[in-house]
């Protein structure tokens, strides 16, 4: 392991840098901006363009290799791989759209797009895993912030595309080819394993609130300016001003380490450092019994029934071990560090994956078809509805982390209950879509965006709490496979087939009216209903784990974690 960066400022500098890199990791959201130019320049049909969209989704979400790399390599190496993939992939696409190189084979562009968006997996995994380990006692909050910013990235790129690049697809691709790698290389030094101050430091809560407030202000600002640009078409000077103000909002999280530098706190008022979770997950001897955050929780009394069966089944083995006849390494229990193969065979692992798959898969189906849904419902310009979904998606990601963190600390309520609550709302939303009532499109889209975002910000900390941070990168990226699989099943097969069938009945390539998606919406409502039931089952199963981890209102490592190698 590389040496840990000491001090209270480095984790916050890393979080501020992570905001920019997370926005860079959202580069896959740019596909709708340059795909029309790619289609016209290369002469592709809609089916060919749709398959390029599949490459876009696969590249973004298949991140098992980056997850493994995060356990083997320092963050700067993982970020470097992502930056190089971004340069190579988008560079080839720029050569094609700018017609610098003509007649590139379709398979070359398909692979180039796959490589380009796969940079998101490398960059996003490095940032998320490192910051989760640097703030191990505030996992829900950190996940909500980082996932919130990546949710805003679509609006950030749209602002740049409209205001600075003058809606030029070739300039956008050149910006992605050169600009994003520069951002990664410039900031990778600050994305590093740190030894944070105690998670119970009173100033830490204020710092998180400031970061959350800055992200909300950025989201509101982007929504308002998008509407203004769409309605009033301001001058170049005004557009550049809008972009400059956006950059200031993006720099806001760096005010925290700046404040810590100018106005340092009294170190004697803070508790001793607890150590990065890079140490915690490695089970190093620095986790002493004198640290109050690592003392076995008094809530162990809740775990009698939780561990009783496992312990009872091991009595004979323990006796044999005591006699020296057998040496056996104990398997981890929920809340401890699991290897991927150990987590893979657990029922809770698959329950969490299924709940996430059903929630995200149904949500991404609407997202991928939102422009067509708007047109089918009679909306000519879908820019505002797309911006509304993006903003509400951000709100869901941010609020999911905040709300779940509050209730898990105050009531030891498992985070997965909020995935179930949000999917109940999604069921109602899909039924509202299917009804086709006048004036409900924007309300339905806003509700769906929030609930869709909640799935991301709950899955991330929940996976780390159940299966630990040591192999979190691999486990997290396997969970993300629910996104492209859901897009393929629900969007590519179900929604696409229903839409084409209804369009054929209208003898047109464009379908109009509620029937274009009614059957799809009803099926998605059923999927979310199943997801709700599974989330309830999962919540009941993991309730004792959260009683162990969050007894006393703060996160506590299981007592046996530090003893496991």
How would you sum up this structure, described in words?
This protein has about 575 residues and is mainly α. About 70% of the residues lie in helices and about 0% in strands. Helix 16 (about 345-370) runs antiparallel to helix 23 (about 520-550). The longest helix is centred in the C-terminal third of the chain and has 32 residues, at about 520-550.
Short description:
With 565 residues, the protein is mainly alpha-helical. The protein contains 23 helices and no strands. Helix 6 packs across helix 7 (139-163) and helix 16 (347-368) runs antiparallel to helix 23.
List the helices and strands and how they pair.
Blueprint: H1 9-25, H2 31-42, H3 46-61, H4 64-72, H5 75-97, H6 106-134, H7 139-163, H8 169-187, H9 202-232, H10 236-251, H11 255-262, H12 277-282, H13 304-313, H14 315-322, H15 340-344, H16 347-368, H17 370-376, H18 383-410, H19 416-435, H20 441-467, H21 472-479, H22 482-505, H23 518-549
Helix pairs in contact: 1-6, 1-7, 1-8, 1-11, 2-3, 2-8, 3-6, 3-22, 4-6, 4-21, 5-6, 5-8, 6-7, 6-21, 7-9, 7-10, 7-18, 7-20, 9-10, 9-18, 16-19, 16-20, 16-22, 16-23, 18-20, 19-20, 19-23, 20-21
C-alpha Rg (nearest Å) = 24 Å
Shape: globular
Strand count, sense and barrel status of the largest sheet are: none
Low-pLDDT parts are 268-314, 560-565
What are the secondary-structure elements, in order, as H or E? HHHHHHHHHHHHHHHHHHHHHHH
Number of strands: 0
Average pLDDT taken over every residue: 84
Count of runs of 4 or more consecutive helical residues = 23
- Span between termini: 14 Å
Per DSSP, what share of the residues sits in E-state strands of 2 or more residues?
under 5%
> In which range does the helix fraction lie?
over 70%
Structural class: mainly alpha
